């Protein structure tokens, strides 16, 4: 039973360590995208087609 407590403690420590490393990487700008804005003007804009729904009115007696 004591092995479960040890494994649980170690896994929580490893999880918190990875969370701290991830937060430091995000804060330092590791995941900022610096490539896409430079090539964005090379792509054509998508043409958006607007569908107009004509409502038909029926007369019921």
TrEMBL record:
The chain crosses the membrane at residues 6-26. PANTHER family: FIXS PROTEIN (PTHR41532:SF1). It comes from Winogradskyella poriferorum. The gene is ccoS. This is Cbb3-type cytochrome oxidase assembly protein CcoS. Keywords: Membrane, Transmembrane, Transmembrane helix.
């Amino acid at each position: 039973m004591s092995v479960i407590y040890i494994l649980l403690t170690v896994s929580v420590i490893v999880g918190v360590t990875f969370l701290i490393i991830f937060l430091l990487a995000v804060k330092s700008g590791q995941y900022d995208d610096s490539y896409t804005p430079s090539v964005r003007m090379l792509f054509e804009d998508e043409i958006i087609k607007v569908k107009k729904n004509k409502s038909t009115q029926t007369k019921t007696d």
